[in-house]
């Protein structure tokens, strides 16, 4: 880690990220090669469906592989990395200067990078996920006390719609101030900003909606930062992407920060 707490900048890559976020003057582009898009200029629907099935299968296989690798990761090593990652985040200028934060509440059974120290120490507006239904619908609700969280059916701690004082928790989509930082979970990530989640589509749907909100409000887009153990950072083109997959700006591991998007290269 750098003395200023900013983390080691591992590798700067021109990326997949650029495909989904082209320069405003560029013609519209897509996150997936056009061959995945059915329509007059794409392949016949049957071919597109077969290709979608291949993507789904590849995602499933990679999820299983990473879950297996996370299971054999030693608890002592995991704990050491949890401390390093959280300290790196807490000491970084991009975290310190952020005013509003959306973070996940880590679940040990899922072997997610721990966020408990970050959410306990944070002195800024904090919003955390609440799953509303199985149709990829999740809200980010503001919490002031970790003690108010309750375990959901997936055994992940989440806020109730109302807090202990019976006040409605603020939904980040209705907040008047922008969020500048998202700390994201996931199973696998790569150096091009690709992210593989657990398959619910919750984050992809939410991140897309928040991106639209920020555009409408003319707010700066928040930095989307994934937290990862080394086994979750994969090489090559192992993570297949579709048009609805939202890329991350940066990945943080115990080895340092991997800034990916132009915003991350500038701000991290
Ligand atoms: N901490 C945390 N909170 C989160 C998410 C997350 O990934 N992590 N989510 C992100 O979307 C949403 C919840 N989505 C989830 C989707 C799947 C599983 C889960 O337990 N998956 C099992 C496999 C279950 C199965 O295949 O039947 C697993 O991954 O081992 C948990 C949460 C909102 N809150
Ligand atoms: N913006 C969206 N609108 C509608 N459906 C979506 C959107 N994003 C994802 N989905 C759907 O959600 C399902 C799961 O998607 P995917 O496998 O990419 O999830 P994931 O990235 O692993 O999960 P998550 O986003 O919760 O971390 C897919 O059927 C996908 O089509």
Provide the fold topology.
Elements: H1 16-20, H2 45-71, H3 75-91, H4 93-96, E1 100-103, H5 116-121, E2 125-133, E3 137-143, E4 150-151, E5 157-158, E6 181-184, E7 188-189, E8 195-196, H6 202-217, E9 223-227, E10 250-253, E11 256-259, H7 262-267
Parallel strand pairs: 1-2, 1-6, 6-9, 9-10
Antiparallel strand pairs: 2-3, 4-5, 7-8, 10-11
Organism: Musa troglodytarum
InterPro entries: FTHF_cligase (IPR002698), FTHF_cligase-like_sf (IPR024185), NagB/RpiA_transferase-like (IPR037171)
Keywords: ATP-binding, Magnesium, Metal-binding, Nucleotide-binding
Task: Explain the overall architecture.
With 268 residues, the protein is α/β, with parallel strands linked by helices. Helices cover 30% and strands 17% of the residues. The protein contains seven helices and eleven strands. A hairpin with a 3-residue loop joins strand 2 (125-133) and strand 3. Ligand FFO binds next to strand 2 and helix 6.
